Amino acid sequence: MTTKSAFALSRRHLLTGAVAALTFAPAARAQSGPLLRVESSSGVSSFTEESFAALPQSVLRTHTAWTEGPREFQGVALKDLLAAAGFDSAALQGRSLRLRALNEYEVAIPAEDCEIYNPLLARSMDGSPMLRSDKGPLWLVYPRDQFPELHDQRYDHRWAWQLAVITVV
């Protein structure tokens, strides 16, 4: 085989590989799984990036125990997401929510937090989408500046980041 034909063969393989990568990239992203799942004894609701973005969006400006100064968070109110999954205020009475993060951190919070504090499932902070390397893609954020009791470290464990699953129990 001459050098010219070896170069042509290598170039052809490179181009074929590039075309295959471009062809399969969207399919791989589509199969990467949901952004968030809501589970209960009655079933599972999955929210993709698109279906999450289609829910009513809210903005919350507050201080956190993990960042400097007040930050602006944008996302979906937890109660709105739960309503989209079939759990209105009446259905949440007396229940709790088990939050599980991508790193397997798990915490239970009273479902009444939805009505009392209206926490936000933040998808972005200060206008930038939150990355997995920095508390994303979803961070449950409480309106700390509006409720003095939330400045207590006993509430800090409820701020679940890298949130992946909410189980209604």
From TrEMBL:
Q: Which InterPro entries match?
A: OxRdtase_Mopterin-bd_dom, OxRdtase_Mopterin-bd_sf, TAT_signal
Record Gene3D superfamilies: Oxidoreductase, molybdopterin-binding domain
Q: Which SUPFAM superfamilies match?
A: Oxidoreductase molybdopterin-binding domain
Would you say which domain of life the source belongs to?
Bacteria
Instruction: Write down a Pfam family by its short name.
Output: Oxidored_molyb
Give the record's keywords alphabetically: Signal
Q: Which part of the chain is the Oxidoreductase molybdopterin-binding domain?
A: 69-143
- Annotated signal peptide: 1-30
Question: Is Signal among the key words of this record?
Answer: yes
Q: In its UniProt entry, what is this protein called?
A: Oxidoreductase molybdopterin-binding domain-containing protein
Organism name: Falsigemmobacter intermedius
